[in-house]
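FAQ: What does the model actually see?

It sees only this:
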Amino acid sequence: MSETQTNRVAVVQASPLFFDREGSVEKVCRLTREAGGEGARLVLFPEAYVGGYPWGLGFGTVVGGRSDAGRRTWQRYWETAIDVPGSEVSRMGEAAKEAGVYLAVGVVERDSTFSRG
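And it is asked to produce this:
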């Protein structure tokens, strides 16, 4: 029979930096390193942590149309999303590797091949 193994899990409940992709990725990297330094083996971030969950954003939509302000908000939201795979994912992966942890991060993903924002 195998031995039971105990691992420390860090569940991050820090506020994301909405509309700030670079700041959000840096925050993930920093908190991942901190959690690894505290002995975590697995670090978990919330859904849509990078890119932000659009709670309360209507993007100016009504049936049959979208306002100019809503289009601008949508554009900012799309610009905050990341490509998977991409440089931001690589940076977060490197931070996890340096910290010696497994990392799960919710991100807003875009596909630059087919999406124009």
